[in-house]
Amino acid sequence: MFIPVEATPPSFKGFTLILPAIAVGNVAQLAVDLIVSTLSMKRVGYMHTDCLVPMVGPNPYATSAEDAGEIHTTAEGICHNFFYRSRSVLNMQKKSWQFVLTSEFSRTVVLSSSHAYQRDDQQLKGTPLRYLVTPAMRTASGPALTELGWMEMERLSPFPGLVEAVPRLSIPGGGVTKGLFTDGCQEELCLAVVLVFCSEGDNVPDAFTLVNHLNEWLLLVDNDVTQKWKVPGSWRLLFGSSHPPSIF
Questions:
Q1: Where are the transmembrane segments (predicted)?
Q2: Higher model confidence: residue 233 or residue 229?
């Protein structure tokens, strides 16, 4: 259930929902961090549901306490971010789609990542970025993505070298990404998945790569600006404190 922070619930009709999937390297969460921080998005509510494990912590953008699932919006009303930082449990996908459907978002963009070491030979060619679109999204935005030269996620044989097998969608390390996309197709939602192949480690560069790629399509910020993304202060604590100088 969505709980607004103000007395009057906000209207999400016609907005774009950006949903970061918990996947390898937490690249999607880092990318949304950049979007929320750069656009100075206002927190409009949170999700109260048994599908999220309760968590309390400092606000990465301010100083107040944090809830498990948050929703941020831009002042101009361009897009919303559904940002969850705690571990999800059963029925999360079903209830997420209930929220999307009842809120009447114009489109949903799922940000995600996938294990780089599990790429097929054909996926080693070109950019490490891929996208998926539901039939509804293909009708609405397919030509625009094609014009941008984006590469669609390949369907692969379940067994390498078995050419007779029917190719299928595989997103190793993508968490709920495949399930969200499959449900989006069944629900006839206008949904796209934008992901990057990466490895665990320092995934800040991957986050910049992903959000820059997304910006080519959604035009969230001006591409001509040199320092177009604002890094949140919480990123100073991504890897803890540095080594003590006295060890040398």
A1: 15-36
A2: 229
pTM score, whole prediction: 0.84
What residue ranges do the domains of the chain occupy?
14-236
Assigned fold of 14-236: Rossmann fold (3.40.50)
What pLDDT, in 10s, does the model give residues 131-168?
999 999 999 998 999 999 999 999 988 776 676 778 89
